[in-house]
Amino acid sequence: MTYRLAIFDFDGTLADSFPWFVGVFNQVADRHGFSRIHPQDLDSLRTQGARQIMARLGIPRWKLPLVARSFTRLMKQQRSAIQLFDGIAATLAELDRQGVILAVVSSNSRENVTHVLGPCCRHIRALECGASIFGKASRLNRVMRQFGVTRDETIYVGDQPMDGEAAASAGIAFGAVAWGYGAPEAFSSLGQHRWFASIGQLQQLAQPRGEPVTG
Q1: What CA–CA distance (Å, rounded) separates 101 from 29?
Q2: Cα–Cα distance, 26 to 136 (Å, whole number)
Q3: What's CA 122's distance to the chain center, in Å?
Q4: How many of the other CB atoms lie within 10 Å of CB of 189?
Q5: SS3 label, residue 82
Q6: Which residues contact 23 (CB under 8 A, 6 or more apart)?
Q7: Most confident of 11-25, 58-72, 89-103
Q8: Pairing of strands 101-105, 126-128
Q9: 111 lies in the same domain as 177
Q10: Is residue 215 included in any domain, yes or no?
Q11: Which residue among 36, 58, 81 closes a domain?
Q12: CA-based Rg of the chain, rounded to a whole angstrom?
């Protein structure tokens, strides 16, 4: 059985935005009054989930919409510095050619997402942008309803544990990528999921699915 619908996270999954994120993080931290990060903190932070990171940096949940808007506005000003990962454009084109329905569910703005995707937008049939980082499950369900696709036929591909949690809440498969914000250890609590060690492996989404791995 193959996946009919592949939904992708954007930042860290399709777009190589982590270096930019690190570069502006302390500016946003100073504006909203939470802890700065230092280069020596990055490896440790990448092994943690969103709730652990928020607790460590002193970010209350009520501030998340304000923080997200700050990052979104800064990216709009600097988005020419952000590109798709090498190989993503060709991968999306090939999955589309093979008949997989492609969609994006992201916390980023539609304007930023479409700008960075550029010509690749023609392969994406649904964009659900501006989602809360803890509110992606409802967006995943909306995309499935839009195309009349069942949970068994759908996978969400992302780079952070909260993406896996959203997939679990929506009752769909999850694929974790090795090149994004989260380190491999960050996914250990998720149980079964697919693991994509390279961008080229994403083309397996158009093939009969293999066995998930246990993180």
Answers
A1: 38
A2: 26
A3: 19
A4: 11
A5: coil
A6: none
A7: 89-103
A8: parallel
A9: yes
A10: no
A11: 81
A12: 16
